[in-house]
Amino acid sequence: MTQKLIIIGAGMASGRALEHLFEQAPDAFDVTLFNAEPRGTYNRIMLSPVLSGDKTFEEILTHTAEWYEDNNVTCRFGEKVVAIDRNAKTITADNGDVLAYDKLIIATGSTPFIIPLPGHDLDGVIAYRDLEDTNAMIALGERPDARAVVIGGGLLGLEAAAGLKARGVDVTVVHIMGHLMERQLDEAAGYLLRKALVDKGITVKCSANSKEIPGENGRVKALLLDDGTELPCDLLVMAVGIRPSIALAAEAGLATGRGIHVDDHMVTSDDSILSLGECVEHEGNIFGLVAPLYDQAKVIAKTLLDQEATFVNKDVSTMLKVTGCDLFSAGDFADGEGREDIVYRDPARGIYKRLVIQENRIIGVVMYGDTADGNWFFGLLKSGEDISNMRDTLIFGPAFQGGAPSDPMAAVAALPADAEICGCNGICKGQIVDAIQGGATTLDDVRAQTKASGSCGTCTGLVEQVLSVTLGDDFVLPASKSVCGCTEFTHEDVRRLIKSRELKSQPAVWQELGWNTPNGCHVCRPAINYYLLADWPLEYADDPQSRFVNERKHANIQKDGTYSVVPRMWGGMTNPTELRAIADAAEKFNVPTIHVTGGQRIDLLGVKGEDLPEIWSDLNKAGMVSGHAYSKGLRTVKTCVGSDHCRFGTQDSTGLGIQLEKILWGSWAPHKLKLGVSGCPRNCAEATCKDIGVVCVDSGYQIGIGGAAGMDVKETELLCQVATEAEVIEVITAVTQAYREGGKYLDRIYKWLAKVGMDWVQENVVDDLENRKALAARFELSQSIYRKDPWAEHARERADTYQPIANLTLEAAE
Amino acid sequence: MNWIDIGKLDDIPLRGARVVKTPLGCVAVFRPTETEVFATSDRCPHKGGPLSEGIVHDRKVTCPLHNWVFCLETGAAQGADEGQIETFATQIIDGRILLDSRTLQTEAAA
Ligand code: SRM
Ligand SMILES: Cc1cc2nc3c(=O)[nH]c(=O)nc-3n(C[C@H](O)[C@H](O)[C@H](O)COP(=O)(O)OP(=O)(O)OC[C@H]3O[C@@H](n4cnc5c(N)ncnc54)[C@H](O)[C@@H]3O)c2cc1C
Ligand code: SF4
Ligand code: FES
């Protein structure tokens, strides 16, 4: 006698299971198939091509009305099952019908997760799961000037965004994590993906937290982020994850966890009830991709026919179905010990490949741009083959033909003839090549004939590379030092490329310049972070994690792990209120040592890390801010008492020093920056051994740069003499900006000066008034972001990060 | 295993670290990528530098005092330096970080 089989859910998993069942035993069961959606099985995966217009819904239907009829399936589409009675072995449909079963399959799939933000139940807030959602998006594309926001930068969210864009909708993707598809991709691949989407015209916002969905007449009108940004939209798509649909099973008393518990044969805790698809949990795993569901379908068909079969969960790989975004990701780069990476980057072609190796086996693969070898790597991953004997060439794939790793020379060779090499003199690559072909064989020849690299000198390395590319072996490149082991490029190369290629994030630098580590090291990270913030003050956000502890915590770490706190005393001046606040703070926080520094201020040494936000907040209350005694940036402006008190004083050196400090403070620089202003040539403020020093004279102000009194002792060189304080300020901000824009990280001004030459500085900062103003304006623009007290900000917004994340000593005591 | 919930994954900045105080000393919990954490002893075997304050790169950390570099997975000092820090088991479930307090007791005590 044929048994009664009822199936709840006509999705991809149960559809495949029925095919296997009918192939083997067409008449074994009398099948009734319920589906909440008003249709049978279709290829849900292909909703994305339907959305983008590449396919029609008819093309993705996998089971037609005839197929169900031929196989005698009773279809109850558009009908939900609302209850299961395990004792009576019946189910109840939503119209009240009660049907008996011998075997029951639960294949309810999963339900999209909707973040319960205020406004989530407005019209126009949808998920991306079925044909209805897809049609709502398609309909939006028919309206002129339609706007949509997609929450979620994972697979589904990005496919939704790309599809909407293809339909002419203006789309913004809002993603809570720092990079897209963070479960499948690392930052470098995430960066390339983002770039490709941005090129398509999609706006991408990462590290963005949604707060509220404002509506109008019951319909969504925008998404509000917690930083206050409002993104107006006509449709809001939430694609933030799925939850297995287990309610029906749980109510019937079946064993469930995150999903419906099944054994290796897809049987639930009740022998008569089986389950498969995204609704199940097998050995702690739940599922979100179809490959393992198809394996489950094979197993469940055999189990129904009393044949032996076991489900084994295999690794899965992910691809994104967005044209022009070729990515591949498989395996595990989330847990495990003793792993190594093999990284390959081809910046020119936007390619990134990374293999994660453990015990000579591939355990993870991430690829972007060229994914042709993805399945070969995936094969090695699944088979667990030992790769030690092909390790050196593994990353180049099965067809390895001696691929060349990226190098700076190739980048220069690829430059077109009209690419500008020397910015100061406006010399293009073609002109240099012409000179070389006309007989120039050395750097000096090129300089003499074209002026290239004859001015500020920062393009010297590039001119040498053009010489080398053009002359081949006849030109021996002077050995230049790369930033660190992560790259072949020098500091000068990196600075130049950040500007010319408009690289505005660290992942952009790592990828476009072919870093051979996933995210740099303690040597290059602080340098790159500085270059980026100096060149793109508005676009790039300073990264505390790329800073040495002192700059991250805004205090100097001591050998015992405590910190020193140095409040600013503008121009070395103080008053009773400040001194009292310092004394109070010293007492309150048990400061063991108070020292008067060489920079005319007071250092509180030995403060506990956990007390920093509080001591700062106390000092803030007395009007004091950070002295940046830790920063590669403005430190102190030392002054003498000047014309206010001193019988020799010619100008108000104290007042000028205070003005300068108030303009320059908070700014970051390649290295520390110390100033001094002396009221007369007796020079009590030691201005002539500072990075920038001003000596007041009767007729005005002598500005010198390039002094030092640390490991090297140097006297400043005269930059210029000017007549007014306003000119002093303009020249000093301009020269500071020129140093900030051109200096190599960790070169103080005197080292930078030795490279560019005093002539160049005078020409650009003193003589060329227009350029001076432009430099000063760029400094001011940057200061609109950085002239802020970090202590106040940290005490206000990040105080908790100074405390332990957890304190288990307390728990033990309880 | 005895998993103790020590906080949200998002409480640790990407490529940053936070400290857990335990009866046996501080444990540093690092987050080298968006989705993974590693826990090690917070004390540098060189001169006691607080490793949680170091720069995190790849799955490594550089000590803030004198730049020794440690592998977060194995705890071994890298390059020419010789030294070893303890490592402790962790897992992430639903965005929460769990630390195995059993390994914490035995290994830290050993
Ligand atoms: C606190 C102070 C000593 C004091 O108590 O007087 C000091 C303390 C340190 N100095 Fe200094 N320097 C201090 C004035 C100086 C001076 C004198 C001055 O500024 O007038 C110099 C020589 C002038 C100069 O810079 O040319 C000076 C030349 C150095 C150098 C050598 C720099 C060089 O380029 O050669 C270093 C090392 C470095 O920066 O790499 C250094 C580094 C350091 C560090 C940051 C060492 C470190 O990395 O931990 C010390 C931090 C101690 C702490 O925790 O607070 N310190 N240091 C002075 C703070 C001044 C301030 O108020 O901000
Ligand atoms: C847009 C999109 C793109 C995707 N792309 C990919 C991809 O590229 N690669 C990949 O591997 N996977 C992809 N997936 C995931 C894949 O589609 C799912 O893994 C797969 O569809 C799950 O199959 P299932 O049968 O478990 O569930 P479903 O296909 O969701 O089927 C479950 C069915 O059960 C019905 N149901 C639920 N409760 C009841 C009830 N009480 N009574 C009656 N019926 C009920 C539902 O209406 C639904 O039709 C994508 C998913 C989407 C939405
Ligand atoms: S002179 Fe040396 S020991 Fe003294 S504070 Fe400066 S760096 Fe430290
Ligand atoms: S204390 Fe860590 S390197 Fe010296």
TrEMBL record, chain A:
Entry GO MF terms: 2 iron, 2 sulfur cluster binding; 4 iron, 4 sulfur cluster binding; flavin adenine dinucleotide binding; heme binding; metal ion binding; NADP binding; nitrite reductase activity
Ranges for domain Nitrite/sulphite reductase 4Fe-4S: 632-771
Family that this chain belongs to: Belongs to the nitrite and sulfite reductase 4Fe-4S domain family.
Needed co-factor(s): siroheme; FAD; [4Fe-4S] cluster; [2Fe-2S] cluster
FAD/NAD(P)-binding domain boundaries: 4-280
Binding site for [4Fe-4S] cluster: C640, C646, C680, C684
Binding site for siroheme: C684
Parts of the chain that traverse the membrane: none
Keywords: 2Fe-2S, 4Fe-4S, FAD, Flavoprotein, Heme, Iron, Iron-sulfur, Metal-binding, Nitrate assimilation, Oxidoreductase
Domain Nitrite/Sulfite reductase ferredoxin-like, residue spans: 558-621
Cross-referenced Pfam families: Fer2_BFD, NIR_SIR, NIR_SIR_ferr, Pyr_redox_2, Rubredoxin_C
Keyword Flavoprotein carried by entry: yes
Domain spans labelled NADH-rubredoxin oxidoreductase C-terminal: 317-384
Pathway: Nitrogen metabolism; nitrate reduction (assimilation)
GO BP term (any one): nitrate assimilation
Cofactor note text: Binds 1 siroheme per subunit. Binds 1 [4Fe-4S] cluster per subunit.
Domain BFD-like [2Fe-2S]-binding: 421-467, 483-532
Organism whose genome encodes this protein: Shimia abyssi
Keyword Nucleotidyltransferase: no
Protein's recorded name: Assimilatory nitrite reductase (NAD(P)H) large subunit
TrEMBL record, chain B:
Domain (Rieske) ranges: 3-99
UniProt keyword DNA-binding present: no
InterPro entries per the UniProt record, alphabetical: Rieske-like_NirD, Rieske_2Fe-2S, Rieske_2Fe-2S_sf
Stored Gene3D superfamilies: Rieske [2Fe-2S] iron-sulphur domain
Name of the protein this chain belongs to: Nitrite reductase (NADH) small subunit
Keyword field contains Membrane: no
Keywords assigned: 2Fe-2S, Iron, Iron-sulfur, Metal-binding, Nitrate assimilation, Oxidoreductase
GO BP: nitrate assimilation
NCBIfam families (alphabetical): nirD_assim_sml (TIGR02378)
GO molecular function: 2 iron, 2 sulfur cluster binding; metal ion binding; nitrite reductase [NAD(P)H] activity
PROSITE patterns the UniProt entry points to: RIESKE
